[in-house]
Input
Amino acid sequence: MEDVFLTNLLTVPDAGRLRPGALTLMANRPVTFAAVGLAHPHSDLLTAMLLQEGAVLAAVVEDDAACRARHEAATTSAPRRELTEVLEDDAIDLVLTAAVPNERAIIAAAALRHGKHVLADKPCCLTDDELRDVRAAQQSSGRGFAVWYGERVYNPAALLAVDLVRDGVIGDLLHFVGLGPHQLNLMPRPSWFYDRRLAGGILPDLACHQIDMFLACSGNDSATVTAARAVNRHHRDRPNFEDLGDLVLESAGGVRGYARVDWHSPDGLGTWGDGRTFLVGSKGTLELRRTIDPAADGQGAYVILVDANGPRRLDVAARPVTFVGDVVADVRDHTETAMTSAHAFAVIELALTADAMARQQPAIGFGPTFRREAIGERSHV
Output
């Protein structure tokens, strides 16, 4: 099933499209990267996309032979090296990490301190201390730090919706709803996946995508988590796992939002999850079927716009997906066009805030309302 999973990842519409002129840009000054930690197959996808954008894979760092074999089969061969060698190699510009999540912050901070740019799979930081360490390393080095929030940066429907909101097509954004169901049995899961101490809870792991989208739509990296919950409702044989979570957000500009994530997508859906986003503006609404429309023709992704001119489905195929190419250009030019480090850290901080709030809630009784007075508020500014 893992091969099917990787095939699905690598064939998302427009996902591997080269940025205009990418090969020309890299011809004079190729960006060189190392893949440090291959535990999650996102390392395969991101490596393949970096290669398509003209970057050069100089090394892999991974002890697990099966992970190395999987990665090489999906991408290309590269010398196996130790982390210290990679860090000391001035010819390596970028470190890509999709290690076991509790190792990612250590790798990212070390790479930044050695003058490397970092592209990390989510979740990158599982604790406030890890976040402080990576943030301090980024600020002292001046290198770029970006996180793979693929449900936006890899999805043409999400990217188009952000464009429409920023262009004022639905007026002032008032409310956001993001739904992120995932299929647990899509591929074999390693033991670390079921231990939140190693993999992070469901809010840092999955709700980060919804937080990322909320901030992108609101146009402001300053927001407050007003409530959050996370529980294990259906996998009690795995006591350190969470399969359902939700949270409430409010941006500094007054946009309100709600997000729900879970590991309960039916096995027969045909993809990893039926992700949806609903945006309410003062002059219209947007609905995103980000991956599939199971009750219609089964295809995705879609954006449905309703305004004074009536409802219509918008074509998303023309919206380019350029995130990885932009990362390559950012490394070369020392810019932050793909994602600012500030945005990456804001998403992490809000996800950790939500996770901390959820820890204060009882493990049972996932009822229909939040008890805001019991959990208080924490903000990211």
